[in-house]
Specification:
This protein has helices spanning 49-58, 78-93, 100-114, 121-129, 161-174, 176-194, 200-216, 222-233, 259-268; strands at 2-13, 24-39, 62-68, 132-136, 139-143, 150-154, 238-242, 249-253, 272-276, 284-288. The radius of gyration is 19 Å and the shape is globular. Helix content is 42%, strand content 24%. It is of the alpha+beta class and 289 residues long. It binds (R)-mevalonate. Residues 11, 15-16, 18-19, 75, 120, 122, 161, 165, 243-244 line the site of (R)-mevalonate (MEV). The site of (R)-mevalonate has 12 residues, from helix 5.
Length: 289
């Protein structure tokens, strides 16, 4: 029996712009998904299409038990974490000897298949490897880990990443001279933010700018605006949508002493708050017997 876990992720900067080759920064965060796999001749068929596909691709049969600290459809990469943890547990239980890179790439291919064509290579890469990552087109560079105090606010409004990505593509098609400079500006502020990683006041300001640019792209939602404003008003350095928007989650960068207050303000606006920070571990073995 093998139990592996994999973390969720947030985009600190650059979501949507990353789809057009601009730089983005993503970070693994503490809530994790735990998956236990056990060899079995007559396993019951798992309900999750992601898990089914993991067993099919790895060519083995086994029973599976999932425990998740990540809400699905919240924009925190829960399906990527489930897929990465399941592949890692299968790899271990059946002694298959695949590398972390192979697990990340296979998880991306599985997400693409299950989601019928659209998936984020960022989600699976960050969940498999942990830490903070700069993504530019196909390239992924690990950044020095920074202990940022974050509060994630889940609006509890379900969203579709595919729909939001399509919406931005339509805007770009119909108003290229407006949409392209917004995407360029997001790319520029992402690069500027890298230089300010240890300066939370500056970083917060960049988050606020990134949020405004995401709203200009049309991926805002009344619920995310409410949470962002509540976080700022209760002492956050800055706050923004994280991920695809149109609901989903926001992140707020906070002074250590303001974390609980910001989380309370988010909950008072009917959001669900998670106080978190970077998770430098990616997929991790929890137990093997
Ligand atoms: C979704 O979490 C982030 C987007 O940038 C899409 C992607 O990176 O694949 C909107």
């Amino acid at each position: 029996m093998a139990t592996w876990s994999a973390p969720g992720k947030v985009f600190l900067f650059g979501e949507h712009a990353v789809v057009y080759g601009k730089p983005a920064i993503a970070m693994a965060i503490k809530p994790r998904v735990f998956v236990t796999v056990r060899k079995s001749r007559n396993p019951t068929r798992p309900k999750s299409p992601y898990i089914n596909e993991c067993f099919r691709v790895m060519g083995v049969r086994g029973s599976v038990y999932v425990r998740s600290q990540l809400q699905s459809s919240s924009g925190l990469g829960s399906s990527a974490a489930v897929t990465v943890a399941t592949l890692s547990a299968i790899n271990d239980e059946f002694n298959l000897g695949y590398s972390r890179e192979y697990i990340a790439e296979t998880a991306f291919a599985i997400e693409k298949k299950v989601q019928k064509g659209r998936a984020s290579p960022t989600d699976t890469y960050v969940s498999a490897n942990g830490g903070m990552v700069l993504i530019t087109g196909e390239s992924k560079r690990r950044l020095p880990p920074e202990n940022l105090h974050l509060v994630v606010g889940n609006t509890m409004v379900p969203h579709s990443t595919a729909k939001m990505v399509e919406q931005v593509a339509n805007l770009r098609q119909h108003h290229p001279t407006i949409a392209n400079p917004i995407l360029d500006a997001i790319g520029e502020l992402t690069l500027a933010a890298i230089r300010e990683m240890s300066n939370p006041k500056e970083l917060g300001q960049y988050m606020d700018m990134n949020h405004a640019l995401l709203e200009a792209l049309g991926v805002g939602h009344p619920a995310s605006s409410r949470l962002v404003l509540a976080a700022r008003a209760s002492g956050a350095y800055g706050a923004k949508i994280t991920g695809a928007g149109g609901g989903g989650s926001i992140i707020a960068l906070c002074p250590r002493r303001a974390k609980n207050r910001v989380a309370g303000a988010i909950e008072a606006c009917e959001g669900r708050a998670i106080i978190t920070t970077i998770d430098t571990d990616g997929a991790r073995e929890e137990k093997h017997d």
